[in-house]
């Protein structure tokens, strides 16, 4: 996901006038920081993106009058307009959040309307669902753990259980394409069904013997038995190959996840260190 622009109005410290952040030049620089004094709206930028994409935020939950508390007390409406390019399908998407305060009752702020659009040629086409998970391939939990790590939650990311981190890494790096276990199991089940069917027919033909154990089969039936036996042997070899490939896929996937598990925490620490150095450098220049 590459952000293009974010327009905010009436959310937390962003008052009546709409303000737009153009990420184009910032992203072209490769690395940029968000700086400002306490309460200037740094976290609001990240929270607005999170809410636009998922309808959820880390700062407030649905039981804390989120609609009322998110809207600036001097504003009568709220707007979040987030545009980004999705790397997964190379399309432009737009998520819009709108809401209004009841003009007759100040504390009454109804549920916000969230809509999603995809750009087709020169127009925005509205999508049926406004949930970004199926677009960018990340659940809200893994989005907040990797893309937007809330303040004070970095330690939680480092201490994730192996199963949780594995699931997150599969989503983040699209590792599902290397996991063939379901497909392999289905092929094995189909082959087992065929083998059992062949063995049943073989048993039925073998039972067609007289008391002296002389097989009373026609040449056509004997040829059919040979065909069944050859097919059973072929399926047995195919099953062995499927199992061997499955073990190789599991080992390869496990090695990939181990590498990512070792790399990502170190990478995040480095990024955090670079951000801190940039912040200190800016503070010194201001002083």
CATH homology superfamily name of the largest domain: P-loop containing nucleotide triphosphate hydrolases
How many domains make up the coordinates?
Answer: 2
Straight-line distance between termini: 36 Å
Structural class: alpha+beta
- CATH classification, class level of the largest domain: Alpha Beta
Shape: elongated
Summarize model confidence as the mean pLDDT: 76
- Round the Cα radius of gyration to an integer and report it: 30 Å
The CATH architecture of the largest domain comes to: 3-Layer(aba) Sandwich
What kind of oligomer do you see? single chain
What is the total tally of β strands?
6
Proportion of strand residues? 15-25%
Helix percent band: 40-55%
Describe it.
With 287 residues, the chain is of the alpha+beta class. The chain folds into two domains: 2-159, Rossmann fold (3-Layer(aba) Sandwich); 176-201 and 230-265. It contains nine helices and six strands, in the order E-E-H-H-H-E-E-E-E-H-H-H-H-H-H. It has helices at 24-28, 42-54, 66-70, 133-136, 140-146, 154-158, 162-172, 181-206, 219-286, and strands at 2-9, 19-22, 77-86, 91-100, 113-120, 123-126. The chain has a six-stranded antiparallel beta sheet. A hairpin with a 4-residue loop joins strand 3 (77-86) and strand 4 (91-100). The longest helix is centred in the C-terminal third of the chain and has 68 residues, at 219-286. The radius of gyration is 30 Å and the shape is elongated.
